[in-house]
Amino acid sequence: MPIDYESLTALGAIMGSGGLVVVDEDTCMVDLARYFMNFVQEESCGKCTPCRLGTKAMLDTLTRITQGRGEAGDIEYLAELADAVKTSALCGLGQTAPNPVLTTLRYFHDEYAEHLYGGVCRARVCKGLIRYEIIPELCAGCLVCLRNCTMNAIVGEKLKPHSINYALCGKCGVCKALCKFDAVRVTTGNGYSLKQLDRAIVQ
Amino acid sequence: MLEFLLTSHPLDCPICDKGGECPLQNLTMAYGPGKSRFPVESKFHNEKRVPLGDLIMLDRERCIQCSRCVRLQDEIADDHVLGFQARGRGLEIVSLSDPPFDSKFSGNTIDICPVGALTSRDFRLSARVWEVRDYPSVCAHCSVGCNILIGERDHDIKRIVPRENESVNEIFLCDKGRFVHHFATAPERLTTPLIRRGWKLEVGSWNEALNLVASKFAETRTQHGASALGGLGGDRASNEDLYLFQKLFRQVIGSNNLEHRVGWSATNVGADLVRLYGAGVGTNLGALDKNVTVLVLGADPEEEQPVIRLRLTKSVRWYGANLIVANGRVTKLAKHAKQSLVYKYGAEAYFLLGVIRAIVDEGLENRDFIAARVANFEEFAKSLEPNTVERCAELCHVKPEKIRDAARQIAQSPNLLILSGREAMFAQQNDPAVASGIAALLLITGHVGRANNGLIALYPHNNSMGALDFGLLSEGGLSVREMASGKVRALYAMACDPAAAGEFTKPAFLVVQDLFLTETAKLADVVLPAQSFAEREGTFTNTERRVQLFRAALKPIGESKPDWWIIAEIAKRLGAEWKYGRSSEIMEEIAATAPRYAGMTYAALAENVKMPRPAYGQGNPSDQPTEIAMGELENVSSGKAWRSVAESEPNAKFELVWNEPGQQSPEDSRQYLAVARSLYDRGTLMSQTQIVRPRVPKPWVEINSQDAEQLGIENGARVRVSFDSRVIELTARVDGHVPPDAVLIPSNLDGTAALPLGARVKVEKV
Questions:
Q1: Is the Cβ of B86 closer than 8 Å to some Cβ of chain A?
Q2: Does B635 fall in a domain?
């Protein structure tokens, strides 16, 4: 891949700062797009409508998806918004603002679809789609995670495997970081999207 | 884009002033989706009530940041008082001036705001726009004659909005015209005739009052002769009223004591010049291009005719008109001028003479025109001899090369318009050479009798031109001062207040016909309640000689009657056989008898005509002038202007008049008094509109910084100004707008009425 204007444009990227970002499989593409959209939303001067309000609409939609509250048709809606902003914004900021969304949609369409329809975030980043689990076989029952849990969501007794109360869990990841036995793992796609969980609590 | 806009626009349409005439509503109706894909909870909330100045209220939540108001103020009104603050969705409109939104055109931002973000603090939340009925009318304040719509509901004026007329006001209106309308329905209005019984004015019937007036007039005429009766007709009355007023005096009573210039003392107001050389029909002050040179002489249109200032600025900026501003001080218009010349007050005639001499010296006069239409050029050129450009330049304090440069521009330009304002008129009073100089400048360059050529005299009131047309001038009769000082036995004062304008001695019998119990009315024997312009129909003639028709919007207040009806009733009781049933019949008589008004019946004035709208810059994609139909609304057209002699008689020969410029008054240690006007004043009409009150300035005197330093006066200090036997205390403004040795006082604020221009005054610190 030669680094010149034409080849970068063909890929949907631009020459300049932030034009190319290297990430591994631990970065969620939807979350990445959301992050850039948040940045653009904060940088927008507000003079023209598509940038001032269109990026906000895109940010809101992306946020919704990363929270697991995505709806059928959101991908098409995002593409439509991105096109409207790209073609009608007045300056370079607004015209390139939808690029992260457009390129991730182009190359990582599957990830969007997984978020929406499968409740899966394969990079295990989007909190609405993941769940922390304690593997009973590995848990030594040391109480470290229980004492340090920010939400007091972990229950258990000394030297017995702990478990997580998902109604309280804030998905902060402290338990996973502190566990000396690698007994905490992150799973996704197990049907516990936030929406379903909300519904379960209401019921 | 609509969807984007609606994502952060509040849905308070039910209580929004714009509801019903809102472009955002209309576009959503036409193109918008029926369902929003945007979550309601992410709407942006902001302040709902931000007072943006005294007249405008801003709703930040409704604002869609289109920046139309900022651009209107910057590009059209030329008052850079609005701007943006913050960014992103927090972007908001703020006022950059102190006092906030300090512009005379702030009301226009309400009209152009595409949503209900900018609302009038007067009209706000008082009615739904579709319940307000619009009546076409003409603004009754200054002499521009802006076309307006009076929004009426429940027999009350709810609001006034501009009515588009490309040749008068386009789509603009100044704040005075827009907000100062509460006088029409004020509780202080006179509702019944009042008759003096003993010491008190008591309510009387129309019959009684009119009989008393007629019998007293007849008695005075038999006992003291017709010349013992005098009439003062205000120049705010309509053409019909003024025509009947002069007809009553000239035909029925037989007196020539007629005047209209109450409160302004100029003796020669240039009416004869306008009659001969008035600007050609078809002149459009808002679309003058680079082929037109405009000389604005001794005028301050910003304060006196704001919409003319706005349109001249627009002509200069958009179409490249060549503007020359000459005055004794620096006015707001000067910054747009190609050339801004500041002459010495009192030496206006020498300035004009210098320009004329420079034209003749360089042989730039229009020889063809002179040969065809000027009778005595050779003699005139001879009289110029002793006055070289250098001598004139020295006397008027303008550099000779600047005079020569102005002369070249004036003579070589294909078109020349001269706008002479109030200060030039006052100069004419002291020195007839100013008037003859203006005429000579137009004649030797041949700039008369065509569109975009000739003279426009900027008069003070809505119908000053009409009053001049119908001869309410002391030609052979008594002057205003003589009539007001008791030289007549019986005085009929219609729509004017001489007692408030200066010294006044009540004659033996005084009739006052007005809207309010004015200072003069308090002294009167009979007070007759008249109707305001909103309650009756009629015509006004604006300062460009355009006769415009206005329709009634309100029911009459109390028992008030139109002025023409009252005059006709008095005439009938004096034995005249007048049969006028409606004001249109009077206009038909005027159209048949007055040559200049020939054919201007109501029917003709109401004809639907098409006006070209300039091609550039008005959202017209075709690049060709589009036509807009005038008069579709209730049949009122754009008005008709009467033609000057230079136009109507293409073969008439004109004479150049030579007046030796007045001798310069010897240098005096005291200051020269220049008199200006402020747009907002403390008059009867203004005082009824509460929200404009903070906009009325405190009386001030402008002093040059050099003089101020010598006298030890600082900006904002109280100073005492004394002349003759009068002493007034004012606040000083030191801002370099007046030349040394002169002071400027607006003459229509508290305690500054009837100031003598050109007097020498003494200024000292209190």
A1: yes
A2: no
